[in-house]
Write a structure and sequence with these properties.
The chain is mostly helical. The protein is about 50% helix and about 10% strand. A hairpin with an 8-residue loop joins strand 6 (about 185-190) and strand 7 (about 195-200).
Length: about 325
């Protein structure tokens, strides 16, 4: 076994550096660090560490069988298709980049089993997974969850996910320099896909955000530029983590009889509400950090009632409605 060792350095809860025993893997992770979002870099480092620990080979020695064995190991461990596909995507991206670096040493992408110079897709190892429509939470469910939250910090985070449609990583990543109080705006420097954007708080969220600052954050931890911090336990004084928010949603969701609640469900709900309120698509895509014009289609399909209402509204404006009757001709 020629396992590649990974050394990861952390600072204030964030990964600062990752090095491995392979110059080629180091090159790829540096490429990801420089060109992708922070969370992508963290996830790829973690996924590649798992992959190389399983296969026990250098990148140039990895073949199709190794990827199949890794796939089988992941299935035996009970991981979901989504998780497995994400890890395979990290491996595939690495081999695509290494091919550009050294096409002779890396002529193939073993995840796809094809020559990388060939103009055909090849046969991938990705697991098929359903494409469920995003679900939403009702106003009653939001209220039940809201009433259990113990702090203005947690309430502010929940509102940012819901009404400002932030991803959980974007909410916990907010820094004081990202906030423009005069406009109630937040600068997101590197969201998903490194798409920087400006988002806004409504007046209620802004008021609750200020209560958090005045009553809980106060002058504590002035050296920490993260807006949201932990106040208890070993993490006290460190930036609030996405994992902590996930646990908070899970705990208080169970307390109010809603074990299905998770942070991204609030973002889905917020986006759906903006779609249904008729926010223009270009502005909405910019606001929520979506590049593709097709990215809002799942939210349009969420509510049959909404589609029915829009159909009725459109039909009401057609001239045929003035002469068509259920009784037919005279």
């Amino acid at each position: 076994m020629d396992t590649i060792e990974f050394a990861i350095e952390w600072e204030a809860g964030r990964m600062k550096k990752v090095t491995t025993g392979s110059p080629d893997v180091n090159h790829f992770l540096d490429y990801i660090r420089l060109t992708r979002a922070y969370n992508t870099w963290v996830n790829y480092a973690h996924d590649l560490k798992l992959f190389f620990a399983a296969v026990g080979k250098q990148p140039a020695d990895v073949g199709r069988r190794d990827c199949l064995d890794f796939l089988d190991q992941q299935l035996q461990a009970g991981h979901t298709n989504t998780t497995i596909n994400r890890r395979l995507a990290a491996v595939s991206s690495m081999f695509n980049e290494l091919h550009l670096l050294d096409p002779e040493q890396y002529p193939r992408n073993p995840v796809f089993s094809r020559q990388l110079t060939a103009n055909r897709p090849g046969q991938s190892l990705y697991r098929q997974q359903p494409q469920p429509l995003p679900s939403v939470v009702t106003s009653e469910e939001v209220q039940a969850f809201w009433e259990l939250l113990p702090s203005w910090r947690d309430r502010t985070v929940a509102l940012l996910l819901w009404l400002s449609c932030l991803r959980v990583s974007e909410a916990v990543g907010l820094r004081f320099q990202d906030i423009e109080c005069s406009r109630r705006s937040m600068h997101i420097p590197s969201g998903k896909g490194n798409l920087a954007r400006t988002v806004f708080m409504d007046s209620v969220t802004f008021a609750i955000f200020n209560r958090y600052l005045d009553e809980e954050r106060q002058q504590l931890f002035p050296e920490v530029d993260a807006v949201f911090v932990a106040f208890k336990g070993k993490a006290r004084g460190r930036p609030l983590s996405a994992n902590a928010v996930q646990k908070m949603f899970r705990y208080y969701g169970q307390q109010c009889g809603l074990p299905h609640l998770h942070p991204h469900l609030f973002r889905h709900t917020g986006i759906t509400q903006l779609v249904q309120q008729g926010m223009p698509e270009p502005a909405l895509r910019q606001f929520v950090g979506h590049r593709s014009p097709d990215s809002l289609l799942p939210y349009l399909h969420l509510s049959d009632e909404f589609v029915a209402q829009e159909f009725a509204r459109a039909q009401a404006g057609l001239t045929a409605a003035t002469w068509l009757t259920a009784g037919g001709g005279s």
